């Protein structure tokens, strides 16, 4: 068997409503208006053609992201998953589906398990009615906690929950209590992100007009610290700046990408990075469902076409910079020797070496043999450290 590992990311773009902070490619739609079957059919066509050109890879993980994949008829999601499993060899593959509490219940849990999903990631986001309303979420606290309980009872091997902190009006103490309330239910993994205001979103427009209430930066930073500490005290390991796992139940798909592993992207709006002709190619399928559903079976796959809206070779230096950018968010840091070997670029150029030495002296970076990492005490400044280094 080949040892070339490959993850597969599947994008399902539809949601019941568009959250005002969301800058993912997602579209609000009624359940009945979603082309469940046609979308799976189009994806099978895409998969067959892409897989034929990716011989010799071993499947390591599948991630159904969105959008809201728990809205997809599980039968159709299952057809796509079965085809992915048939296209690439691979045992013990982690299969994650992102689920929203508003479209996840016992029946959906059982159907997803049947389809072959073994990990769910639930968009809890918060546990206060007012804040959930502000974030445009369709569930309430009980719905969110109930979804986590349902997933655990249903028997998924791994259950993760997403939490957003740093929202106007939310004290660090409330953020801490919410993280603990979810942790106490027993999920294997938690992601906790500070709310970010992205251009192109409703919140982005409101912020630009000065009409969006925001939490002071100091309180956001404090929330980050107290949430991290509380989850570590509760037995979770903060293995990435925003991600926590119990007993090494790391998010296999994301961790592989943070470590620089290639992945195939399927579906409208999906990004993928795959080895092509001795280099890495990054592509994006056009974020336009109609185009995706009707693309001809001969549309070029790896260059801009009816199907593809972006395609570019990732040069060695860019690949190396990405390794540093993503790897420095991990507690384990970046293995520079491996990054150099796999990308073909110099890890610490003369200039980066000088910056790294300065950052080490300032306590913002640690160098141990070939490993470069940001110590937890400096995670609040991680973005700045990476910016300086690169
Ligand atoms: S449910 Fe998720 S993907 Fe859909 S709009 Fe909200 S944040 Fe975005």
The end-to-end span amounts to: 37 Å
Q: Which percent bin holds the helix content?
A: 25-40%
What is the fold-level CATH name, i.e. the topology of the largest domain? TIM Barrel
- What structural class do the secondary elements suggest? alpha/beta
CATH class of the largest domain: Alpha Beta
Roughly what is the average pLDDT, rounded to an integer? 96
Provide structural commentary.
The protein is 38% helix and 23% strand. It has 2 domains: 4-256, TIM Barrel (Alpha-Beta Barrel); 334-389, no CATH class. The chain has 390 residues and is an alpha/beta fold. The protein has helices at 36-52, 74-87, 106-115, 129-134, 141-154, 172-183, 202-208, 217-233, 252-258, 289-294, 316-327, 336-343, 350-361, 382-389; strands at residues 4-12, 14-15, 27-28, 57-66, 94-99, 119-125, 158-165, 189-194, 237-240, 243-245, 263-266, 271-276, 279-285, 308-314, 334-335, 366-368, 371-373. The strands form 4 sheets. Strands 9-10-8-7-6-5-4-1-11 form a 9-stranded mixed sheet, sandwiched between helices. A 3-stranded antiparallel sheet has the order 12-13-14. β9 and β10 (243-245) form a beta hairpin. α1 runs parallel beside α2 (74-87) and α6 (172-183) runs parallel beside α8 (217-233). Iron/sulfur cluster is lined by residues 15, 18-19, 22, 24, 26, 66-68, 100, 123.
């Amino acid at each position: 068997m080949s040892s070339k590992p490959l993850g597969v990311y599947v994008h399902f773009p539809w949601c019941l409503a568009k959250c005002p902070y969301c800058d993912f490619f997602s579209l609000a739609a009624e359940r009945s208006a979603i082309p469940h079957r046609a979308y799976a059919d189009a994806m099978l066509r895409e998969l067959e053609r892409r897989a034929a050109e990716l011989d010799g890879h071993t499947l390591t993980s599948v991630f159904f992201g969105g959008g809201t994949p728990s809205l997809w008829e599980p039968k159709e999601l299952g057809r796509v998953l079965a085809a992915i499993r048939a296209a690439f060899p691979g045992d013990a593959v982690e299969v994650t589906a992102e689920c929203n509490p508003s479209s996840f219940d016992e029946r959906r849990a059982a159907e997803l398990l049947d389809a072959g999903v073994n990990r769910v990631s639930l968009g809890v986001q918060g546990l206060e009615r007012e804040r959930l309303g502000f974030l445009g979420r369709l569930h309430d606290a009980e719905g969110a906690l109930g979804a986590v309980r349902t997933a655990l009872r249903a028997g998924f091997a791994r259950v993760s929950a997403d939490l957003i902190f740093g929202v106007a009006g939310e004290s660090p103490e409330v953020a801490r209590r919410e993280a603990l309330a979810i942790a106490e239910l027993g999920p294997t993994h938690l992601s906790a992100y500070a709310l970010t205001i992205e251009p192109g979103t409703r919140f982005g427009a409101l912020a630009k007009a000065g009409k969006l209430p925001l939490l002071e930066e100091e309180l956001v930073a404090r929330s980050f610290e107290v949430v991290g500490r509380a989850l570590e005290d509760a037995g979770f390991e903060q293995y990435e700046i925003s991600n926590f796992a119990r007993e090494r139940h790391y998010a296999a798909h994301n961790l592989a990408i943070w470590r620089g592993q290639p992945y195939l992207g399927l579906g409208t709006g999906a990004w993928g990075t795959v080895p092509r002709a001795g280099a890495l190619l990054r592509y994006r399928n056009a974020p336009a469902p109609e185009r995706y559903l009707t693309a001809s079976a001969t549309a070029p796959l790896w260059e801009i076409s009816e199907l593809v809206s972006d395609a570019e070779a990732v040069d060695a230096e860019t690949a190396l910079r990405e390794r540093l950018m993503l790897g420095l968010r991990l507690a384990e840091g970046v293995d520079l020797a491996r990054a150099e070997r796999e990308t073909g670029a110099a890890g610490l150029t003369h200039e980066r070496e000088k910056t790294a030495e300065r950052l080490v002296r300032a306590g913002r970076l640690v160098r141990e043999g070939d490993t470069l990492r940001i110590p937890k005490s400096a995670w609040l400044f991680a973005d700045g450290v990476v910016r300086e280094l690169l």
